[in-house]
């Protein structure tokens, strides 16, 4: 399952930005280089899978399409993270205060939270987007207390 497509990047950030970032053949830039955008999406998905695989079994099953489609789609969080990372990969040089860089670092932090289990994937309709890796998330906590009790007799002599 692909988490993001070139159309997703165009919808999220506008066709003009994608043209400026990808068209290296025409002066001035005139068309979106779909192959370059697909490569950025694949690279971004590889990074996302690297983090997600620490908590979920791959491939991710996905969510039921809440728009009424028959196919399963990527969880919205993974789609957003993949789109932000792919956009970052399309830029050549960024200053740390640039919005694209900040969104990339935010995506990186969210992926670290997913990998540690602090942030879980969810679907809009409530179904599970993937299978948690065995032994994680299904742990049972057991308490074992000592039978010893503190009584007034035990405390006698303490001030």
Structural descriptors:
single chain, 159 residues, mainly alpha, two-stranded antiparallel sheet
| Percent in helix | 40-55%
Task: Please report the number of helical segments.
Answer: 6
CA-based shape: elongated
Strand order in space, largest sheet: 1-2
| Largest sheet report | 2 strands, antiparallel
SSE string: HHHEEHHH
Q: How many domain units?
A: 1
Strand % is under 5%
Instruction: Give the uncertain stretches in residue-range form.
Output: none
- Count of strand segments: 2
Radius of gyration: 24 Å
The overall pLDDT, averaged over residues, is 87
In terms of quaternary structure, the protein is single chain
Could you characterize what this model shows?
With 159 residues, this protein is an all-alpha fold. It has one domain. 45% of the residues lie in helices and 3% in strands. The chain has helices spanning 6-13, 15-22, 34-52, 76-90, 99-116, 152-155; strands at residues 63-64, 72-73. It has a two-stranded antiparallel sheet with strand order 1-2. The longest helix has 19 residues, at 34-52. It is elongated and about 90 Å long.
